[in-house]
Design brief:
4 helices; transmembrane; 24% helix; 6-stranded mixed β-sheet; SCO2322-like; GPS-CTERM; two-stranded antiparallel ribbon; alpha+beta; signal
Length: 231
């Protein structure tokens, strides 16, 4: 192998090792309303927003004010997803459906600006059969507040201000401090699917991908040099 090829290989290998050793950036946490589907009596993070999800009669929709970086870390509603208990006193009606709604305002540590979270609530919404989970929430927990991107910001007036604010620092969830209003995990968006806000999808980091790419280039350079010698 020529001196030039050895130098090239050394540089590419250094880049590969640097990329592989790069630590992923710390996921940014957000303070926001998460949206949950009470399937079979247990909570599952919703795969679409409340404005597009149209639950069947007997379903339970859950909302939890939480601080997290992604859906995997989001706190689920602490009340049971028990439709029979929630809607026991709401009779069925022809042409309508009944949806159990659980609203968990979170903990004092999750609150922003010194606010005190209200007590958790369970409600039974009786709404038209083609109505959405967002319609069920609006029927029992006004006033609701949305931002210009249809992200759910407040339920029953809580919180009074802010919308999916970034929490400044990994350990500041209880401090009430926020840095900006960038979008949080969007499961409570009125417009679409849930999306993790901070790298909680389990995919490879940018550093790892860069390292892999450098290793591929290094291997290609070695093959090219070997073919050149044989030629």
């Amino acid at each position: 192998m020529s001196r030039r090829a050895r130098i090239l290989g050394t540089l590419l290998l250094a880049g590969a090792l640097t990329g592989l050793g790069a630590a992923p950036a710390q996921a940014q946490e957000y303070r926001y309303w998460s949206f949950w589907d009470g399937k079979g009596g247990s909570w599952a993070y919703a795969t679409e927003g409340p404005a597009t999800l149209r639950p069947a009669d007997g379903a339970v929709a859950g909302f939890r004010f939480t601080v997290s970086a992604d859906s995997a870390a989001a706190g689920q509603p602490r009340a049971a997803a028990d439709f029979n208990a929630i809607c026991a006193k709401t009779p069925a009606k022809d042409g309508d459906k009944r949806i159990g709604v659980v609203i968990d305002f979170g903990t004092a540590a999750d609150a922003s600006g010194g606010e005190t979270p209200p007590q958790a609530r369970t409600e039974c919404a009786r709404i038209p059969k083609d109505a959405s989970a967002g319609d069920a929430l609006a029927a029992v927990a006004r006033p609701l507040r949305y931002d210009s991107n249809a992200l759910l910001c407040a339920i029953a007036g809580y919180p009074k201000s802010g919308c999916a604010d970034q929490v400044s620092g990994s350990g500041d969830a209880g401090s009430g401090a926020s840095a900006s209003s960038s979008s949080a995990p969007a499961a409570s968006s009125g417009s679409g699917t849930a999306a993790d806000g901070g790298g909680g999808d389990g995919g490879p980091s940018a550093g790892l991908l860069g390292g892999i790419a450098a290793v591929v280039v290094l291997g290609a350079a070695a093959v090219w040099q070997a073919r050149r010698r044989r030629g």
